[in-house]
Amino acid sequence: MDKIAIVILNWNGRRMLEQYMPSVLMYSKGDATVIVADNASTDDSLDLLEKQFPEVRIIRFDENWGFAEGYNKALTEVKAEYYVIMNSDIEVTQHWLTPLIEFMDNHPEVAACQPKLLSMANKEKFEYAGASGGFIDRLGYPFCRGRVFETVENDNGQYDTKAEVMWATGACFVIRSSDFHAVGGFDERFFAHSEEIDLCWRLRLQGRKIYCIPDSHVYHVGGGTLPKGNPMKTYLNFRNNLTMLYKNLPEKDLEHVMRWRWLLDYLAAFQTLICNGNVGDFRAIYRARRDFKRWKKEYAPVRQQLQAAKTNHEDVRQPFSILWQYYFRQRRTYSALPLQAPKSE
Asked: Which of 98, 113, 223, 298 lies deepest, with the highest CB count within 10 Å?
């Protein structure tokens, strides 16, 4: 069994692999096995890997399983103590793995951790997808140390402490293989988006911890598969977020939160239509709510099982509305929020 396996899921990502695989191999291959799981790409991704990066192990699929199911299938074929789940559009830095693995080795109570995620387009700024560790508010809206909605901060070292967070970014994080499989991996029905938040929430329900280790930093392009503004991305974000809430919320808060989300989701839909003239996103939000309602019954036994099995009854959400703080109180940065302070070292 390997100690560390870096697993990159690929779908028609030749350009990203060609550009960023060299940094992964240069700064990681002495410490980890590098694996690409290919979701039935129709470009020449695999030819590129075989010719230019023969040391990379390839797992081939005969169809596109998406992010969640693709990783679940790939990781059943990978034997390692730690999985590093990484997007193909990540540029790593020298010694980036060392702080992450050392922290995990020394903290057995921690299931997963992420590095500080910076923007490839502007290396002085955090990257939207995960910044310096993620949280959710009381209604399930995600935000990060370094990114709240569309406000992405410059990295001035303000979040350089190791900190316990609610979720680690799916763009790049380390997870113990034992923890990944113990909770059943990603929810395959999500396909993509919010699957890492759901996974981390389920781990937290089992008393496991999630951390950001900013001693390690990587650079992320972002938006490579479904760019911002794509109606399918909107659909998946809304549908999967609602499903995540239904699965993981404590019983006492479920009805209250779902009522608020019904109102706020439809307000968001009409705002995109009336203010922005965006018919695609309007339809995407409507479809997301319709499809969530349709498969909610299928998730009822999943929710029942999760709630019955949880060992940690601490509420992992922040106790405020990020919408209220951001739009009405004008608190646009993480440090300005009325937070329950994360534990840091």
From this structure: 113
Calpha distance 84→184 (Å, rounded): 17
Q: How many CB atoms lie within 10 A of CB 318?
A: 20
Tokens of 73: 């299938």
Contacts (Cβ under 8 Å, ≥6 apart) of 26: none
151 in helix, strand or coil?
Answer: strand
Helix, strand, coil content of the chain in percent (nearest 5): 40, 20, 35
For 173, the token pair is: 């994080």
What tokens appear for 19 in the block?
């550009």
Find the angle CA(149)-CA(100)-CA(309) to the nearest 5 degrees: 70
Distance CA 217, CA 100 (A): 10
Tokens 């396909």 sit on residue = 191
- Cβ-count burial 260-282 (b if 16+ within 10 Å, e if not): ebeeebeebbeebbeeeebeebb
CA distance 128 to 126: 7
| pLDDT per residue as tens digits for the range 270-324 | 999 998 889 999 999 999 999 999 999 999 999 999 999 999 998 999 999 999 9
pLDDT in tens, 106-152: 999 999 999 999 999 999 999 999 999 999 999 999 999 999 999 99
Q: Which pair of structure tokens corresponds to residue 187?
A: 């929810």
pTM: 0.95
3 state DSSP class of 256: helix
| DSSP-assigned letter for residue 206 | T
Query: Which DSSP state fits 324?
Result: I
- Exposure of 85 in the CB half-sphere (CA atoms within 13 A): 25
Rounded CA-CA distance 99/96 in Å is 7
Give the HSE-up count for residue 247: Cα atoms under 13 Å, Cβ half-sphere.
25
Question: Are 114 and 169 spatial neighbours (Cβ–Cβ below 8 Å)?
Answer: yes
Q: Provide the token pair at 150.
A: 């569309």
3-state secondary structure of 95: coil
